Amino acid sequence: MSRIGVIIFPGTLDDVDAARAVRHAGAEAVALWHADADLRGVDAVVVPGGFSYGDYLRAGAIARFAPVMGEVVAAAKRGMPVLGICNGFQVLCEAGLLPGALTRNASLHFVCRDQWLRVENTATVWSTRFEPGAEILVPLKSGEGCYVADQHTLDELEGEGRVVFRYLLDSGGGTGSPNGSRNDIAGITDARGRVVGLMPHPEHAIDPLTGPTDDGLGLFLSVLDAVGAAGALAEAVSGR
Amino acid sequence: MARVVVDVMPKPEILDPQGQAVAKALPRLGFEGVTSVRQGKRFELEVDDAVDDATLAKIAETFLANPVIEDWVVRRVEP
Amino acid sequence: MARVVVDVMPKPEILDPQGQAVAKALPRLGFEGVTSVRQGKRFELEVDDAVDDATLAKIAETFLANPVIEDWVVRRVEP
Amino acid sequence: MTSIQQIDTVEHAAATRDHPQPYRELGLKDDEYQRIRDILGRRPTDAELAMYSVMWSEHCSYKSSKVHLRYFGETTTPQMREKMLAGIGENAGVVDVGDGWAVTFKVESHNHPSYVEPYQGAATGVGGIVRDILAMGARPLAVMDPLRFGPADAPDTRRVLPGVVAGIGGYGNCLGLPNIGGEVVFDPSYAGNPLVNALCVGAMRVEDLHLAHATGVGNKIILFGARTGLDGIGGVSVLASDTFSGEETGPGRKKLPSVQVGDPFTEKVLIECCLELFREGLVVGIQDLGGAGLSCATSELASAGDGGMRVELDRVPLRAEGMTPAEILSSESQERMCAVVRPSDVDAFMRVCDRWEVTATEIGEVTEGDRLVITWHGETVVDVPPRTVAHQGPVYRRPVQRPTDQDALRANIPDALPRPSTPDDLRDTVLRMAASPNLCSRRWVTQQYDHYVRGGTVLAQPADAGMIRIDETTGRGVAVSTDCNGRYVRLDPYAGTQLALAEAYRNVAVTGATPVAVTNCLNFGSPEDPGVMWQFEQAVRGLADGCVALGIPVTGGNVSFYNQTGSTAILPTPVVGVLGVIDDVRRRIPTGIGGQAGDALLLLGE
Ligand SMILES: Nc1ncnc2c1ncn2[C@@H]1O[C@H](COP(=O)(O)OP(=O)(O)O)[C@@H](O)[C@H]1O
């Protein structure tokens, strides 16, 4: 069975949800403690949401220095799939794995709501299960979700198709952001399509009993396709 | 046109969780020797010359700072 | 022991919704003549004398500020 | 700097019997002060005076409400008590909800602090109630926030409401507790005295129930969590001045704000740390530090135990310099807990705290005998029978008098008011009602609260009751609703309170859950006003009698008096919370009608 790591910083909140989503998708969830510089042999990593260290300085600013993050950065450079959700996205930006930064919502208020997104890029390891242009409904809950980057970075992201998720005003409607994000960006990927970060919470949309939909499961199923295939290939090559 | 800076800091006896979080993190990042950190806000205002000091003080006290828990200082700075 | 102030402000090209909210609210409260407001952070540090300027610059750049969106200034002040 | 020689020790107090003390400034009446002297056989030390004055306050001692609250116990039948594992008198009520699960819930008020500093007042209100639930041994699972404000367009409401909502969201969101419901009500009577009530619900395995007892001679007392600072010691600062004549010089800290700042991150870590301590079986007894801080925690733990207690106050980690024993005992610094730990477990306890980077300090131990003895650098500053501090405060039977305007108020019925009759009038009325602050959507408030975190929320706003799953395997869950219409209560406190109970009960029942327990937060004006006391007495009787009729017990609650602007009291507002159980949340009944075209619509009742 594939093993997906879920990182826990002091102040992480959505780790139980991320682990549940991993299990729902059919993989084993492995808790990774911030203070241990050890990924325990996992095939992919989720950096979940919450308020690491209270986010008192800047969201993600302290967490990115945690011992486990050094391992995550190194593994990501080798191509390990990494998903940052909400605070996890902020941590990945602070750690330099993804460009740009997340700032205070334009409304200055924390916002918790069900949010329509369009899947713009279905080639990343975290989005292959979606149809191009698919619209999904997942919770958004953040106070510092406004994506900003300089114009050059934005042009690059758009030019290379690295915007993975974009905010929609409504299903079937135009794009529009609930927090002031540039270009209505909800989620982006690194150049290789293996590190993805997004503000909305796919892990809260895996069961219509407790979330708006089960649309979020697509991200977790996608990565299992990728690491499952890689695992099978590695097993075949090594003759295991 | 004048430039005005208003510094707003938590009162000394008031808990400052933000400063505390920074202070605790620094040694973990390998920076030793910082014995205390307090975190506050800095406002930079551009104001018409007609705005006098009394008005600025009023703005700081009633709006930029929360006098129950914060101290503030208003300074005019060179542009 | 030295006192150090680090001012961290949003870069001019970065949207500053907090500063904007303040600027918009002031006329409503009867304060005219403030043409622009930007809101940033102010840190007050107490540091051992052994901590040199290069270290302080490093703390500000790698930690207190996010260079993608913020500018910063480090100053030693009289105690 | 306070030097040790200046400290008022027991020995010094015994030798200076006639030394004048500022007990009135601390809120004690002449006879109350005399009672303390009688109990101790001497004058109290500064530290003792600080403890008694805060523990004998209305807020901590329930001195005006006790005689009435007894009625809850008197009317609870053994049958109603069947599922109750802990009731009134514990930090929070606990009920057995089946499958080996116990659920605990409680509402508390943070009205006055939230008026002074809306954000921090509301934030620390959430923090306090969450620690209450944690102290029962439970994992906190969800919060709710019944709120009352003055008119929506009043300037003060514009100051208070956004701050309160941001504070509740800021703290609760950061703790990772879903907000599953609450109330927002506007009425002019709350203009100078908004109500900020916070509810928390938590769950644990039945065998993990922890009660606040300091038992076992030799067991250690460990204080853990945040450092102790000058927060909320406002009144007690009179003790720090050299003389009590109000001199402006001297070391007195007369102008201290009594505002506490919340640190939700520290509380989140404290929660996880406590739960790990419980799991590892390292805790004999535990108590949260809330109002009255260490005064409350030490005296309550000691008086509920089977021995005495000795505390070395100079070991308490401080955030401010030069704090006196009285100040340390009175500090209301947030995010602290106090545990009783077997000596053999202390190392393991400290290791868990280390892992969560939680400051933990052994400050004393359970002793033979029945005295609470507190020392400061080796000198005794407190030596009291703990029960006299925690449980034997004054009890008042305040005058009760039905207000003279009650009949006129009731006679003033709405029949004389014009009624809309034409279709246009009706349309107009419906639109006005839908847009009115008391009926319009609460989304502006509720969308600032995370209701998804932890993935167990099955129903939240805009449902009639919040519902959370407590067991992922079986689907067992609980539903909670809080309600109160203060205008009904004003017209008839007895029936009005029963209406609040009935509404909360119905709100829980319509989700598919079975109501099992009741909590309350009784927000009233001054107990020194006989009319208010009448409202209070009627409300308590109405609620208790209503509970008997419904067959579910009151398991806990909170009383908040002195809610008034000048001499005008708020509408009597006994907020009633009802908890229900559902054995499988998949069978919940979602809110709203017309899921399917062709559904039949039935009206039940008259
Ligand atoms: N302060 C609040 N915090 C959280 N939820 C709230 C708050 N106020 C209202 N709600 C929720 O909004 C919904 C509508 O509230 P309300 O209009 O008071 O309902 P009702 O009139 O049916 O009792 C309910 O789900 C309620 O729990």
TrEMBL record, chain A:
It catalyses: N(2)-formyl-N(1)-(5-phospho-beta-D-ribosyl)glycinamide + L-glutamine + ATP + H2O = 2-formamido-N(1)-(5-O-phospho-beta-D-ribosyl)acetamidine + L-glutamate + ADP + phosphate + H(+); L-glutamine + H2O = L-glutamate + NH4(+). Its main location: cytoplasm. The active site is at residues 86, 201, 203. SUPFAM superfamilies: Class I glutamine amidotransferase-like. One of its GO terms (cellular component) is cytoplasm. CDD domains: GATase1_FGAR_AT. The keyword Ubl conjugation does not apply. Signal peptide: none annotated. It comes from the Bacteria. Its EC number is 6.3.5.3, 3.5.1.2. It is found in: Cytoplasm. Pathway: Purine metabolism; IMP biosynthesis via de novo pathway; 5-amino-1-(5-phospho-D-ribosyl)imidazole from N(2)-formyl-N(1)-(5-phospho-D-ribosyl)glycinamide: step 1/2. GO terms for biological process: 'de novo' IMP biosynthetic process. Keywords: ATP-binding, Cytoplasm, Glutamine amidotransferase, Hydrolase, Ligase, Nucleotide-binding, Purine biosynthesis. It holds the Pfam family GATase_5. SMART domains: GATase_5 (SM01211). One of its GO terms (molecular function) is glutaminase activity. InterPro entries: Class_I_gatase-like, PRibForGlyAmidine_synth_PurQ. HAMAP family: PurQ (MF_00421). Part of the FGAM synthase complex composed of 1 PurL, 1 PurQ and 2 PurS subunits. Part of the phosphoribosylformylglycinamidine synthase complex involved in the purines biosynthetic pathway. Catalyzes the ATP-dependent conversion of formylglycinamide ribonucleotide (FGAR) and glutamine to yield formylglycinamidine ribonucleotide (FGAM) and glutamate. The FGAM synthase complex is composed of three subunits. PurQ produces an ammonia molecule by converting glutamine to glutamate. PurL transfers the ammonia molecule to FGAR to form FGAM in an ATP-dependent manner. This is Phosphoribosylformylglycinamidine synthase subunit PurQ. It comes from Gandjariella thermophila. The lineage of its organism: Bacteria, Bacillati, Actinomycetota, Actinomycetes, Pseudonocardiales. The gene is purL_2.
UniProtKB/TrEMBL annotation, chains B, C:
Pfam families: PurS. GO terms for biological process: 'de novo' IMP biosynthetic process. It is found in: Cytoplasm. Its EC number is 6.3.5.3. It is an enzyme of class 6 (ligase). It catalyses: N(2)-formyl-N(1)-(5-phospho-beta-D-ribosyl)glycinamide + L-glutamine + ATP + H2O = 2-formamido-N(1)-(5-O-phospho-beta-D-ribosyl)acetamidine + L-glutamate + ADP + phosphate + H(+). One of its GO terms (cellular component) is cytoplasm. Pathway: Purine metabolism; IMP biosynthesis via de novo pathway; 5-amino-1-(5-phospho-D-ribosyl)imidazole from N(2)-formyl-N(1)-(5-phospho-D-ribosyl)glycinamide: step 1/2. Keywords: ATP-binding, Cytoplasm, Ligase, Nucleotide-binding, Purine biosynthesis. Its main location: cytoplasm. One of its GO terms (molecular function) is phosphoribosylformylglycinamidine synthase activity. Part of the phosphoribosylformylglycinamidine synthase complex involved in the purines biosynthetic pathway. Catalyzes the ATP-dependent conversion of formylglycinamide ribonucleotide (FGAR) and glutamine to yield formylglycinamidine ribonucleotide (FGAM) and glutamate. The FGAM synthase complex is composed of three subunits. PurQ produces an ammonia molecule by converting glutamine to glutamate. PurL transfers the ammonia molecule to FGAR to form FGAM in an ATP-dependent manner. Belongs to the PurS family. PANTHER family: PHOSPHORIBOSYLFORMYLGLYCINAMIDINE SYNTHASE SUBUNIT PURS. Part of the FGAM synthase complex composed of 1 PurL, 1 PurQ and 2 PurS subunits. This is Phosphoribosylformylglycinamidine synthase subunit PurS. It comes from Gandjariella thermophila. The gene is purL_1.
